[in-house]
Design a protein that fits this description.
This protein has 22 helices and 14 strands. The chain has 655 residues and is α+β, with helices and mostly antiparallel strands. The chain has four domains: 77 residues; 96 residues, no CATH class; 222 residues, Nucleotidyltransferase, domain 5, CATH 3.30.420; 73 residues, no CATH class. The strands form three sheets. Strands 1, 2, 5, 6, 7 and 8 form a six-stranded mixed β-sheet that branches. Strand 7, helix 13 and strand 8 form a beta-alpha-beta unit. Helix 2 packs antiparallel against helix 3 and helix 6 runs antiparallel to helix 7. It is elongated. It starts with 17 loop residues before the first helix and ends in an 11-residue tail after the last helix. This is Integrase catalytic domain-containing protein.
Length: 655
């Protein structure tokens, strides 16, 4: 790589570019650490070079420096030499012994003379210049960490790169043992190591192979360049993301022989964080394998829901003074309506429910960060680190997060031992986040996140955005609008009131059931997918038909989401849940409880998928956990070994 250094004797006033002649733009040089003799030399050349670049008079400038004309030109050459970043060295070129050009070997490649440490300066670089194919092959080896083919070893090493490169010298370079570098004792292994280290610092693909995707991505951070801010006040920008906390909880099922403790899967935590104050506006917790768009919507709805403290079950865990969430703690704030919501590239964030329904309901923009660019939502990631620092990762029933946080032995068994129920884990999350909002932070001027929002509200620096008008195109948050066909029948000898069917379940009310003129037409129905017991319908002419209630009593008793209803309907159609039940939701929970008990008996110290579903169903519906049924009496006859072991006072059965 060229250093941009002109050759000796080629620099003159006319050949120096105009941009380099402007010495006022040159960077200053630090002269504190150089010797007094070098300082005198430095200050002797400064006015001479300025005079030469301003006037072009070499003789006068050389007299000012009290040196020969060629000596002055040599110093000017050093100052206008370009650095690797394209800028001139400037006044730093006057510092004695500062190398401003790279060494280029002009002598032939060395032949060993008994001392491998002599005669090899610049030899490896000259060798690669003469063998461009080997240079490209070496670059590929470094990018692969010394691996062969397309495979990248788990632990790349310079030793492996050097060994593979020496093989290529025979195959690609067609070299013999008498050629450099094969004729040296170490076969240029140290030269390969030095070259690889320099190449790694400049090649992103190589860094990704040696140090991982995260390390390669982090090199684009902390460059000193700053992007402009999207926000000027609170609630302009919020960020949302999901995080799985590595701890195991349990479900405690009551039964005829005592409680049955069943481990459940780890908990997903999904917060919505305000950018300027870093306050958590709302959150939701999901006990599922993966989060869904319904979880995202639930977290956004929680931002505008008035917060009330939970009844804490853990002894010693409590809310600090001022703890809480913006809506419910800050006077006058009734809803959080951001201008921009920042997401990462998780698949759930690209769902129609998020990108269209939620965006229209809030009247906001949606921003997605680049793939793998976690720093776009860095303020949300810092929240996760803060919560983990509170101790949830150190719990005895934690599972660990990776090599730096090794998995604790028998996390599920520890959860059973300590009876860490999922309700207690939810208490921990609520208290931890509420206390986080009320804790002063140095980055906020020793104010708490809630204090920052409160002061913006008090000084009128924040004007809460009004909600968009509710319509079919932009319904209220959490509402889905569908055009559904109206059904009904009225003829001689039989009649069926007018109704609307949603997911195989009928809805009607006193106003709709006699509107036979609407049969066959399509009405606009606003469906609250979190609780499907009631919906709101509008006639084709826009008139409101009122609130429609589900007709089937089996669906009317317990709140349930649309996803839960569809799950239950699949089991009903498969015959796993009977039709003659009092309540579908409670029957489904009993079905899960029975399966969870069976899984706990077969694998008592393992996580139960059925118990995980049961815990999340109880969280969504608010319904109590069902009791386990008594085990059915065994009808299997006693075998002969059992009969032989019976006590003498017990009459053996007749086989």
């Amino acid at each position: 790589m060229s250093s941009g250094c002109p050759k000796r004797g080629t620099t003159s006033f006319k050949r120096i570019p105009l941009a380099l002649k402007d010495h006022s733009t040159w960077e200053a040089a630090d002269k504190i650490q150089i010797s007094d003799e070098d300082k005198d030399r430095f200050w002797r050349f400064v006015p001479a070079i300025r005079h030469y670049l301003d006037t072009g008079k070499l003789v006068e400038s050389a007299k000012l420096a009290d040196c020969a004309r060629q000596t002055l030109l040599d110093q000017v050459t050093r100052c206008v030499t370009l650095r690797p970043d394209g800028k001139p060295y400037g006044w730093a070129g006057l510092i004695a012994n500062l190398r401003v050009s790279t060494y280029t070997r002009r002598a032939p490649l060395p032949v060993p003379n008994g001392d491998a440490n002599k005669g090899g300066a610049g030899a490896f670089e000259k060798f690669l210049q003469e063998h461009p194919k080997l240079r490209e092959a070496l670059h590929d080896l470094i990018r692969k960490g010394g691996g062969s083919g397309s495979a990248i070893p788990s632990k790349p090493s310079f030793k492996g790169v050097a060994a593979a490169f020496l093989k290529l010298c025979y195959t690609i370079g067609h070299l013999t043992d008498n050629d450099y570098p094969l004729n040296f004792p170490d076969k240029a292994r140290q030269s390969v190591r030095r070259y690889a280290r320099k190449f790694l610092a400049l090649d992103t693909k190589a860094i990704r192979a040696w140090y991982g995707e995260t390390a390669a991505a982090q090199l684009s951070l902390q460059t000193g360049h700053h992007s402009f801010d999207f926000f000027s006040t609170v609630f302009d920008v919020v960020g949302a993301d999901a995080h799985k906390f590595d701890c195991v909880g349990v479900l405690m099922l009551q039964g005829p022989v005592g409680p049955q403790i069943v481990p459940i899967k780890r908990i997903w935590f999904y917060p919505v964080v305000e950018r300027k104050s870093t306050a958590v506006c709302g959150y939701t917790v999901s006990i599922t394998t993966e989060i869904s768009s319904a979880v995202v919507e639930e977290a956004v709805v929680a931002c505008s829901t008035r917060w009330t403290p939970r009844a804490i079950r853990i002894k010693g865990l409590k809310y600090i003074d001022g703890a809480g969430f913006p809506v419910g703690t800050i006077e006058g704030l009734t809803a959080v309506r951001p201008s921009v919501v920042v997401f990462d590239n998780a698949a759930v964030h690209f769902s129609t429910r998020v990108t269209e329904r939620m965006r229209r309901s809030l009247g906001c923009m949606v921003s997605f960060g680049g793939v793998g660019s976690w720093w776009n939502n860095g303020f949300v990631e810092r929240l996760f680190g803060s919560l983990e620092a509170l101790g949830i990762q150190a719990l005895p029933f934690g599972t660990g997060t990776g090599p730096g946080d090794p998995m604790r032995k028998d996390a599920a068994a520890q959860a059973i031992k300590h009876k860490a129920t999922w309700e207690e884990l939810l208490d921990f999350f609520d208290v931890a986040v509420a206390n986080y909002n009320a804790t002063p932070k140095a980055s906020l001027g020793h104010q708490s996140p809630l204090d920052v929002i409160r002061r913006h509200m008090e000084t009128h620096q924040c004007l809460p955005r009004t909600a968009p008008p509710v319509s079919a195109l932009s319904p209220a948050l959490g509402i889905t609008v569908e055009n559904l066909r109206v059904a009904g029948r009225l003829k001689r000898g039989s009649a069926a009131g007018v109704y609307i069917q949603i997911d195989h379940v009928k809805y009607t009310n006193d106003n709709l059931k006699r509107r036979f003129e609407l049969v066959g037409q399509h009405c606009s129905v606003h469906i609250p997918e979190k609780d499907m017991r009631t919906v709101t319908a509008f006639a084709p002419d826009g008139q409101c038909l009122g609130t429609l209630t589900v007709l089937d009593k089996r669906w009317a008793q317990t709140p349930h989401s649309r996803d839960l209803r569809r799950t239950i309907m699949r089991l009903v159609h498969a015959g796993e849940i009977p039709l003659d039940v009092q309540c579908y939701v409670s029957t489904y929970m009993e079905h899960l409880a029975a399966k969870a008990a069976d899984e706990a008996r077969s694998r008592p110290k393992s996580v139960s998928p059925s118990a995980t579903k049961l815990a999340d169903t109880a969280r969504q519906t608010g319904a109590p956990l069902p009791a386990l049924p008594a085990p059915a009496p065994s009808t299997r006859p006693l075998d002969r070994a059992t009969r032989a072991s019976l006590p003498g006072y017990i009459k053996p059965p007749a086989w």
